[in-house]
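Q: Here's a chain of 197 amino acids. Please give me its 3D structure as tokens.
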Amino acid sequence: MIYSVRGTITAKEYNLAVIECAGVGYACRTTAYTLSELGDTGSEGMLYTYLHVTQDDVELFGFADKTELGCFKLLLTVSGVGPKAALSILSGMDAGSFALTVATGDHKALSKVKGIGPKTAQRIVLELKDKIAKEQVSVRDMPVKPAAAFSRASDEAVQALMVLGFSEGEAEAAVSRQDPSLSLEEIIKLSLKSLAR
């Protein structure tokens, strides 16, 4: 498994970035967000990667941060959602917006993404909400709860961050540093920024 690639950015095209490492150019399928975060051609860049292998193809996908990679992996667990659809969703909304959409069950926001129909959007929300519910059960069964009192938005933000692949401890630590009176979306965005550091 290729965890990440770092080297010279030799090409940037729609949904594609090529990074040359030790004379080998790695073509990474990617999102509009990651392309905007990468520097100009000729500068150094780094991407966290996911190697997708099928019977007919091998593709490398690259992301600017672990949060976006976590969203991508999460989307691939949904039946009927492949890498192209996952890239389309993450090009249509950033990781924070995606987490908020899942946490609030807003399938209409997902159906606005090009290539994602209403049925697929509903399936994504339904299947990912089930995963969040399973996480909540395991959290409830734990004997020790953190002492910090969270607002409802903070609790939902913790769950959204856990869906993105962060541990409960990491999510709670990041959320506890935010003002609990902020909106859910703001708490998630600020928490993601602190986790990305």
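Q: Can you summarize the key feature?
A: The two ends are 24 Å apart (CA to CA).
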